[in-house]
Design a protein that fits this description.
Blueprint lengths: L1 E4 L2 E7 L9 E6 L8 H10 L1 H14 L7 E5 L7 E6 L10 H18 L4 E4 L11 H18 L5 E6 L2 H14 L1
Parallel strand pairs: 2-7, 3-5, 3-6, 6-7
Antiparallel strand pairs: 1-2, 4-5
Helix pairs in contact: 3-4, 4-5
Bound molecules: adenosine-5'-diphosphate.
Length: about 180
């Protein structure tokens, strides 16, 4: 499904984030920036070693990436030009500011993209895999944060939410329907 806010198309689709042709894709990385499983593993596997080389440089210069923050690297062999790496919160029953941190992931990824003049961006469902964030709650934060940002800054052409499973897609679609 898709909606348009101002000039920005917001799309929810089922697919593989590594295959998206938006100018940048977002990686649900971990603080080490040295790669991991899930979407992180898929991005490094498909994008090749160039991404990890840049992550290592950032890590050397700035240390580990705190949850909620975002950094950018080239995208190696991917169709996208750039990867924005952000670290989601690990779900701890909602008692550890997880909602605020997850919101920061989306906000900081969007503002970093805008700073770099990136006009189209694909997000995976940050934190809802290995990090255990319940997807009904996470999808509300993901979609409402993007809508809020897009209403405030008329900049992006397209923002995609790329869901791996049909179930995740259905949850995001229901959330979007409830928010608009
Ligand atoms: P986190 O550690 O932030 O929870 P994961 O990578 O474990 O991140 O999972 C985040 C979401 O990404 C999950 O819903 C998972 O199914 C999904 N995912 C895994 N591989 C891909 C892929 N290639 N494209 C899009 N989404 C993916």
């Amino acid at each position: 499904m898709q909606i348009t806010i101002d000039k920005t198309r917001i799309e929810i689709l089922q697919g593989d984030i590594t295959k998206q042709d938006t100018q940048a894709i977002v990686n649900a990385a971990n603080s080490s920036l040295l790669g991991g499983g899930g979407v992180d593993g898929a991005i490094h596997r498909t994008g090749g070693p160039e991404i990890l080389e840049h992550c290592k440089k950032i890590r050397k210069e700035y240390g580990t990436l705190p949850p909620g923050n975002a950094v950018i690297t080239p995208a190696g062999n991917l169709t996208a030009e750039f990867v924005i790496h952000t670290v989601g919160p690990i779900w701890r029953e909602g008692k550890n500011h997880e909602a605020e941190v997850l919101k920061n992931c989306y906000k900081n990824s969007l503002s970093l993209a805008q700073r770099e003049m990136i006009r189209s961006l694909s997000f995976p469902s940050i934190s809802t895999g290995a990090y255990g964030y319940p997807i009904d709650k996470a999808s509300k934060i993901a979609i409402s944060t993007v809508i809020e940002y897009v209403k405030k800054h008329s900049f992006f052409d397209e923002i995609r939410f790329v869901l791996f499973s049909q179930y995740d897609l259905a949850v995001y679609e229901e959330t979007m329907n409830n928010l608009i």
